[in-house]
Amino acid sequence: MSGESVLALKRRARRINRALAEQYPYAHAELDFRSPFELVVATVLSAQTTDVLVNQITPLLFSRYPDARSMAEAEAAELEAIIKPTGFFRAKTRNLLALCNRLVDEFDGVVPGRLEDLVTLPGVGRKTANVVLGNAFGIPGITVDTHFGRLARRFGWTVSEDPVRIESEVAELFEPKDWTMLSHRVVFHGRRVCHARKPACGACPVANWCPSYGAGETDPARAAKLLKYELAPGQEALLARLLAETHRAAEIRMESQRKQE
C-alpha cells in the first residue's frame, strides 16, 4: 500500500470487485438455509469446519428442531449426536442451547434483525451477525472470515489481523450496497484460487491489480491445476451450469456435493 493514495486504493479495490463479479456471477452464501434461524444456527456450526459438512447435517437437525423453541428444549445428548461431525460439538451444543433460550426469552423466539441485538446472542460475533444480516435480512454487511481477512491483506486493502478493523477499513473502500456480495466474491475467490499456502496467481482474474501477485504459482498451466471446486480441471460441466443458471447456483452446488458424497 506504500505510496498509494486513498483514491487510488479505492479505485483499485473497486476494480478487483468488478473483476470478481465477472468471475463469480453465481457467488452466494454457501451455507444452506431457509430462514434467519436456520442461518444463525448453521453459521455457529460452521466454526472450525467446512460449509459442506454443515450442509450435510443441517437437514436432519432442522427436521428435528425447526425453530428456536424446539431447539431450546432439546436434550443436549441428542443435539450433540447430530452435530458431532462438525467438531467441537459439546461447545457448539452449549452455544446453541444458550442461543435458543436467549431467543425465546428475549426475542419471542425470533432472530433479531439488528447487529446490536445479534451480537448479544451466545456464540454470535460480528462475523456471524453480518452473515445473518446480509443474507437473511438484506442488510449490508462485510463478513470477515479467515479467507476474507487473508485476501484483504493480499489485496492491500488492510494490513490488520483484527477482524473488526479489517471490516471497518474495507467498508471505507466500497459502497454499502456492495458489502454483502463483495464478501461472497472474496470468500469464493479465497476458496477456489487465492489459497492460503499456494495461491494460483497464474490463473487469477485480479492478478493485474494485486500487489501480492507472485506469492504463489505464476505459470498459467501449473496454476490452473491448483484451482478448486467448479474451477478445478474436470469440473467444466459444473462451471457451465453455474454460469448458465446463476439464479439456481445454490441448488446446483448442493446437487453436485450430494453426488460426490
TrEMBL record:
Cofactor(s) of this protein: [4Fe-4S] cluster
Gene: nth
Protein name: Endonuclease III
Keyword Magnesium set for record: no
Transmembrane segments: none
Catalytic activity annotation: 2'-deoxyribonucleotide-(2'-deoxyribose 5'-phosphate)-2'-deoxyribonucleotide-DNA = a 3'-end 2'-deoxyribonucleotide-(2,3-dehydro-2,3-deoxyribose 5'-phosphate)-DNA + a 5'-end 5'-phospho-2'-deoxyribonucleoside-DNA + H(+)
Cofactor note: Binds 1 [4Fe-4S] cluster.
EC number: 4.2.99.18
Claim: 4Fe-4S is one of the keywords in the record: yes
Family: Belongs to the Nth/MutY family.
InterPro entries: DNA_glycosylase (IPR011257), Endonuclease-III-like_CS2 (IPR004036), Endonuclease3_FeS-loop_motif (IPR003651), Endouclease-III_FeS-bd_BS (IPR004035), HhH-GPD_domain (IPR003265), HhH_base_excis_C (IPR023170), HhH_motif (IPR000445), Nth (IPR005759)
Keyword list, A-Z: 4Fe-4S, DNA damage, DNA repair, DNA-binding, Endonuclease, Glycosidase, Hydrolase, Iron, Iron-sulfur, Lyase, Metal-binding, Nuclease
Residue ranges constituting the HhH-GPD domain according to the UniProt record: 45-192
